[in-house]
Write a structure and sequence with these properties.
11 strands; eight-stranded parallel β-sheet; TIM Barrel; three-stranded antiparallel β-sheet; alpha/beta
Length: 380
């Protein structure tokens, strides 16, 4: 039987080169722990978590498994706020005026409420942690990193942005640092910033994604960062995909969509069913939810946004547009309108399984494919 052991499995201390994408909020502690226990690398999706929530999740993961795991947060270069938007548009107006969402975006929200017979949800509930809510995005990011360091998490992953400012601190803890990229330019930045592994994510991937296909991207990233190990992501949901990634020069896979419908995934049952029912053409890239390109399972709300020809606001502000519609939809039981990040590999997800079964099935099929290929070569 072909061996899947390589530099990545050795560096991470795992059995199979299969890594859970740190999807927030889907990859909570249950899913993270299950993937690690199966011999892959579970990665906690902590982008929206406070330090206390990260610590609590890490504690639960360690109660469930003694195997390695990671924590993923987002490190965007910059995010905007309503106040920033207001300052840009005042042109000498009252500098103390309260920031408001531009009227055309308020009108869009109203059209959504009317089109789907939703009620205006009113103001959001006050945050559970008001001190945390008052922090800037940079302050939150630093607080999350400090917590992950204090918890001595073995693997740190930056799902967005460059982890370079934190590499020295994590290496001082003995941790492995991973950075995700969608092009060779950013792959070089991750390499030069001192990270240990780069994940090359093709446009087929769910969630925030780029413009280059996995088949074209992975070997180019391998070439520009060598000898740094590369992990492939985007459109990979079975052992054939893992074998193909290895053939492209990658040494592992980073998977999200295949775990969306697992029993441990923190996702509405209706959304899990939509992933299982989806076929290859049932996803779309939209800026509706975050302002950045994000691949989602199609839904009627996205259709309304895309047909509006409106431009998305910057990351940090566009969420103010989408969030009330999401609360209104949930209040009305319209789960079909809720954001459901998912990739083109959804067509390969045909049933709801346990996460450990998924990991083992991918590894087993990859070994069989590699054995079959080696046998064919030997026979020629």
């Amino acid at each position: 039987m072909a061996s899947l052991s390589n530099r990545v499995t050795e560096m991470l201390g795992i059995e199979h080169p299969i890594m859970l994408a740190g999807m927030s909020p889907v990859a909570e502690w249950e899913l993270t722990a299950a993937v690690s226990e199966a011999g892959g690398l579970g990665v906690l999706g902590a982008a929206a978590m406070t330090p206390d929530e990260i610590s609590e999740s890490v504690c639960k993961i360690r109660e469930y498994t003694s195997k390695p795991f990671g924590v993923d947060i987002l490190l965007p270069n910059a995010t905007a706020s309503l106040a920033d938007l207001a300052r840009e548009s005042r042109d000498g107006g009252d500098p103390d005026a309260l920031p408001h969402l531009p009227p055309e975006y308020v009108q869009f929200q109203q059209r959504v409420f009317e089109a789907f017979d939703l009620k205006d949800p009113g103001p959001a509930d006050p945050p559970r942690d008001e001190a945390w809510a008052r922090l800037s995005s940079a302050e939150r990011q630093n607080a999350q990193v400090d917590c992950i360091l204090q918890e001595n998490v073995p693997v740190f992953a930056a799902g967005l942005g460059n982890p370079a400012p934190y590499v020295e601190a994590f290496h001082g803890n003995g941790a492995t640092v991973i950075g995700l990229v969608g092009n060779t330019k950013n792959a070089r930045r991750i390499r030069d910033g001192g990270a240990d592994i780069v994940v090359a994510q093709g446009t087929e991937a769910g969630g925030h994604t780029g413009r280059i296909g996995t088949m074209a991207l992975v070997p180019q990233v391998v070439d520009v960062v060598t000898p740094m190990p590369v992990v492939a992501a985007g459109g990979i949901a079975d052992g054939r995909g893992l074998a193909a990634a290895l053939a492209l020069g990658a040494e592992g896979i980073w998977c999200g969509t295949v775990f969306l419908a697992t029993k441990e995934a923190h996702l509405d049952q209706e959304l899990k069913e939509r992933v299982v029912e989806a076929v290859d053409e049932d996803t779309i890239i939209t800026r509706l939810f975050s302002g950045k390109t994000m691949r989602n399972i199609k839904n009627p709300l996205i259709d309304v946004w895309e047909s509006s020809d409106m431009h998305a606001l910057p990351m940090g502000v566009q969420g103010v547009v989408a969030e009330p519609t999401q609360r209104a939809a949930r209040n009305a039981g319209r789960i079909d309108l809720i954001r459901n990040a998912g990739g083109q590999a959804a067509g390969l997800v045909t049933e709801q399984l346990g996460a450990q079964d998924v990991v083992k099935a991918i590894a087993r099929e990859a070994e069989e494919v590699l054995d079959r290929m080696q046998g064919g070569v030997a026979a020629q």
